[in-house]
Amino acid sequence: MKFIENEYCELKMMLTKDIKKEIIAFANTNGGKIYIGVDDDGNIIGIDNPDNDLQALTGMINEGVKPSLIEYTQIKIERYDNKNVLIIEIQSSPNKPHYLADKGLKSSGVYLRHGSSSIQASDEIIKKMIFEHTGLRFEEMISKNQELTFEYLEKKFKDNNLSFDKNKYKILNIINEENKYTNLGLLLSDQCSYTIKCAIFNGTNKIEFRDRKEFTGSVLKQVDDLFQYFELFNKISGKIVGLKRIDIKDYPDYSLREALLNAVIHRSYYFNSSIMVTLYDDKFEIVSMGGLIDGITIKEIFKGISSSRNPNLANIFYRLGYVESFGTGVGRILDSYEHCDKKPSFDATENTFSITLPNMNYQEITDKSNIVIQNLSQEDIIINYIKEYNKINRNIVEKLLNVSKTRAYKILNKMLEKNILKKEDNGKNTYYVLK
Questions:
Q1: Fewer Cβ atoms within 10 A, N terminus or C terminus of the chain?
Q2: Which residues in the chain show pLDDT less than 50?
């Protein structure tokens, strides 16, 4: 018989003190088995004193791991090829995180299983496990910063003709029964320490930056500022259908807004990492921390099933009219692309959730069959392209003519001088149309 190490199996030639790390890693993740008396290649070598090792191992687990794992571990001795092998079977524990007693509840004492290895957990992962397994919500905990102001929040309530005074703080759970600001208060305050980072790229990859920006302040202000910022890049293209001209934005306003709100309202704030927003020529991506809530799948989200990590935060956004109803956001994002061949995509890992929205007006230049290029000048090729697709930018000219960035600019500037083209949107968001 031969064993193979994987996510659920660890092989050890002999018993050492490091075995506690492996036991903790399995208990903190999805459980597994450890075989002592088997080498890294899966060959059975056996152990000489199984009873002594069993007794020593029991002591290690009792004294060296906190909280106790006795209830979630089973130790036994089995014989393979006439050799003794000590087997430890560890269940995934509901009392996470477990840690080394001599290291404490910090990164050097907490381990997770990742593939066939056991790795140290980050401080953020440890926080997440603590709060998820104690039933405490982040937004209900006392904020470390008690010097908070709420100018932007008050303005939003006033704009919506809603009263907002000190009496509302407790009703909205901004302060707790001890009159301490909660983490919900921190998120809504002008001193919010969580941010959204945005990067705009030329092209369809992360090679050439066009712009970058970080949004700070109350999460309400971050949403407003980012949505206003994207208005600068959400271009409109006109298409002639019959006798009518139909203007289509690169991204439906609703889909952009809902993707952003989903990231802010449902993310896990146990992680300090910023929400990451990236805009390419062909797509918009937004990644937030936290993954899906346990027990909820992406398919269930599509059906409108909703469960929020931050229900009090969600309630504030609902009161202020940012969201119309709970659980309909993802479905309405899909509906906004109903008549488009390109569809949004959603992805979830253990610690992240991402939404990708395709640019409805993007035309990938991989097939030039719609543009007659034989015996045409470079200017004529550009003119034909604009007649086909309404506009052009410098990136497209580079690909279309197979020229350098500098050469593309020279050709376009010459066509501007000849009054063939007209420039729209100065700066990094420039494109050209026929004059």
A1: N
A2: 367-369, 372
In angstroms, the Cα distances linking 133 to 64, 120, 342 are 21, 19, 40
* Helical spans, DSSP H, in 211-310: 219-230, 253-266, 298-302
Residue 329, number of CB atoms within 10 A of its CB: 24
Contact call for residues 100 and 273 (beta carbons, < 8 A): no
The predicted pLDDT at position 369 comes to 45
Domains of the chain: 9-134 (3.30.950.30), 138-188 (no CATH), 196-307+319-358 (3.30.565.60), 378-434 (1.10.10.10)
Per-residue model confidence as pLDDT tens digits over 403-419 = 888 888 899 999 999 99
pTM: 0.63
Q: How far apart are CA 35 and CA 89, in angstroms?
A: 9
Contact 31, 73 (CB under 8 A): no
Is residue 276 within 8 A of residue 264, CB to CB? The reply is no
Question: What are the φ and ψ backbone dihedral angles of 202, each rounded to 5 degrees?
Answer: -80, 140
Among 177, 173, 185, 176, residue whose Cα is nearest residue 145? 185
